[in-house]
Design a protein that fits this description.
Blueprint (H helix, E strand, L loop, with lengths): L1 H9 L5 H12 L25 H21 L3 H7 L2 H20 L6 H30 L5 H22 L11 H6 L3 H9 L7 H7 L3 H6 L19 H15 L3 H14 L5 H26 L1 H25 L6 H18 L4 H9 L5 H21 L2 H4 L5 H12 L11 H19 L8 H8 L22
Helix pairs in contact: 1-6, 1-7, 2-3, 3-6, 3-18, 4-5, 4-18, 5-6, 5-9, 6-7, 6-17, 6-18, 7-14, 7-17, 12-17, 12-18, 12-21, 13-14, 13-16, 14-15, 14-16, 15-16, 15-21, 17-18
Family: Belongs to the major facilitator superfamily. Sugar transporter (TC 2.A.1.1) family.
Protein name: Solute carrier family 2 member 2
Subcellular location: Membrane
Length: 482
């Protein structure tokens, strides 16, 4: 599920020009021969200034609709997780991914702009659910000593999915005029594999015993649980502090500026003089994956709080370095290397802490009763901030009077440093945000490494430390089973 989420995040970017060409052909606003400008050869897409407004609108919607779908479905994570169970819930929603993959894979058979947008909407809806159900399930089945490492695997699978989409999205693989629809259609392939494998996975024992009261089934999952659970609203004063921390953790992930790197690294590398920027972008994906593995190895040793502080602080320094490099790269040729090094280090620090940890720390901050609702709200915050930050320019784009103004606003809103209204200083804004998040986490976020769920809750409630034998699951066989 996590791999599919990452693949769907990255797959739409590589074949943009090819997809726009097919949109234009389908809409009848551009033909391969008669509408080609004199300086454009056959088979190429027209330059940005000559794209038809309808093409820009449909392309923007193709990108934005994914976040909208995730934003809407994130509210349903708690309901599906409790109604069908963690495993059956993930198994049930796979049908959405398969349908979405088929729509995009068969998009050349009808109107590609309609089928791709519909498929992306359904895929976003699926990813909004799986981005909550997966961390919830992992958090509940993981032994306490390995809860961080197993939780970080969610982010590892996401970045592997992004890297995979970048590699097979190259024009000589699938990101070309003949195979782009196959590239998009493969978004649904992991769901087929997951459908085969999920029945082999045991249901969360906490869900079986605490919510359903099925003691024998829970024992088969090697844990015993308490029969009753206080049903307190997630918005009550009891959980308000935990909820605030959870939302801020997700905001720090999305507002760190990392999306500006992920979406515009190719353009930044081009500006820095890299001859093959697409391979440098793939290099960013490799760094992404490597340092997520580093996080997997360190998170249960160094701790969640420490890695998050190191990551945010390092990203803040890199944002400053990136600003300096972009500002003076025209004056000093070696400054382009500073910019590139800052990009790689920025992504590295992100994956050490701020990238993976928010996904699973929410499950650690809450006990069984409010956990699904908390994960749903945190996921909604994540998807909503992503949409506001990256995509809400769509409404403006569809109403701008000229294509030139639309493209200018698009670049401004997306904060690409060469075109943005803040120019290269846009990363100073991110540096300030990162500094604020670092300060907040230093003072407000406790370390959750090695603690039971009730011990973590006691930190927020300013109670005495709860003995390990009085944890959430009273009849637990051993602390490692927690």
């Amino acid at each position: 599920g996590s791999l599919q989420y990452g693949y769907s995040l990255g797959v739409i970017n590589a074949p943009q020009k090819v997809i726009e060409k097919h949109y234009a052909l389908s809409l009848g606003v551009w033909s391969e021969r008669s509408a080609l400008p004199e300086n454009i050869t056959e088979g190429e897409s027209p330059p940005e200034e000559q794209k038809h407004p309808s093409v820009v609108m449909y392309w923007s919607l193709s990108v934005a609709i994914f976040s909208i779908g995730g934003m809407v479905s994130s509210f349903l994570v708690g309901f599906i997780g409790d109604y069908k169970g963690r495993v059956k819930g993930m198994l049930m929603v796979n049908i959405l991914a398969v349908v979405a993959g088929l729509l995009m894979g068969l998009s050349r058979m009808w109107k590609p702009h309609i089928m791709v947008i519909t498929g992306r909407a359904i895929m976003g809806f699926y990813c909004g659910l799986t981005s909550g159900l997966v961390p919830m399930y992992i958090g509940e089945i993981a032994p306490k000593a390995y809860r961080g490492a197993l939780g970080t695997l969610h982010q590892l699978a996401i970045v592997i999915g992004i890297l995979l989409s970048q590699v097979i999205g190259l024009d000589f693989v699938l990101g070309n005029d003949e195979m782009w629809h196959v590239l998009l259609g493969l978004s649904g392939a992991p769901a087929i594999l997951q459908t085969v494998l999920l029945p082999l996975c045991p249901e969360s024992p906490r869900y079986l015993y605490i919510l359903l009261g099925k003691e024998q089934e829970a024992r088969k999952s090697k844990s015993q649980h308490r029969q009753t659970q206080a049903q307190l609203t997630i918005l009550s004063s009891v959980y308000r502090q935990q909820l605030f921390v959870a939302l801020m953790m997700h905001l720090s992930q999305q507002l760190s500026g990392v999306n500006a790197i992920f979406y515009y690294s190719t353009a930044i590398f081009t500006q820095a003089g890299v001859s093959q920027p697409v391979y440098a972008t793939i290099g960013v994906g490799v760094i992404n994956t490597v340092f997520t593995l580093v996080s997997v190895a360190l998170v249960d040793r160094a701790g969640r709080r420490t890695l998050t502080l190191v990551g945010l602080g390092g990203m803040c320094c890199c944002a400053v370095a990136m600003t300096v490099g972009l500002k003076f790269q025209n004056d000093y040729s070696w400054m382009s290397y500073v910019s590139m090094a800052a990009i790689f280090m920025f992504v590295s620090f992100f994956e050490v802490g701020p990238g993976p940890i928010p996904w699973f720390i929410v499950a650690e901050l809450f006990s069984q009763g409010p956990r699904p609702a908390a994960i749903a709200l945190a996921g909604c915050c994540n998807w909503t901030s992503n949409f506001i930050y990256v995509h809400c320019a769509v409404n403006y784009l569809t109403s701008c009077p000229t294509i030139k103004h639309r493209l200018r606003f698009q670049h401004m809103f997306f904060c690409f440093p060469h075109q943005a209204w803040m120019d290269c200083y846009v990363f100073i804004l991110f540096a300030v945000l990162l500094l604020c998040f670092t300060i907040f986490i230093y003072f407000r976020v406790p370390e959750t490494k090695g603690k039971t769920f009730e011990e973590i809750a006691a930190v927020f409630q300013k109670k005495k430390r709860i003995p390990k034998d009085n944890a959430e699951l009273e009849q637990l066989k051993s602390s490692s089973d927690a």
